Amino acid sequence: MSSIAETMARDHQGCDEVFANAEQAAADQDWPALEKQYGIFLNRMKRHFAMEEEVLFPAFEHETGTTSGPTEMMRHEHQEMRGLFDQMQAAIAAGDADEYLGLSETLLVMMQQHNRKEEEILYRMMDQALASEAASLLARFDEVAA
Length: 146
Prior knowledge:
CATH class: Mainly Alpha
Shape: elongated
Number of helices: 5
Order of helices and strands: HHHHH
Largest sheet: none
CATH architecture: Up-down Bundle
C-alpha cells in the first residue's frame, strides 16, 4: 500500500508533466495544444487541491486538533495558485504567449516551493498522524471531482 506522501508526490509529478507540456505548447505558440494541455493541467490541479482540501486536510485537522498551521498555509497557497490559473486562462484566451509564459514561470516557482513543503513536511506528518486511516482516506480520492 502506498503512503499518503508517496501517493501525493506521484500526483505532483503527474501535474508537473502536464504543466511542462502546456508550457512547451505556449513556447511553440501551438494554441490548440496549449488549450488542450492547459485544460488537462487545470483539471488535474483542481482534483489535487480537492483531494487535499476535502479529504486529507480535514482528516489531519480532526486528528491533530489544529486548523491553523500547515493546512491553513497550504489552503492560502492554493488560493494564490488559483488566481494565477485564472490569469493564465485569460492569457490563452487573448493569444498572449509572452504573458502566459511569464505567469507560468511564476506558477512554476510557487508550485516547486509549495510541493517541497508538502512532500518534505506536511505529507510526512499526515503519514504519522493518519496511519490507521490512510488506506480509507486514499480510497476516498476516487470520489473526488475536480
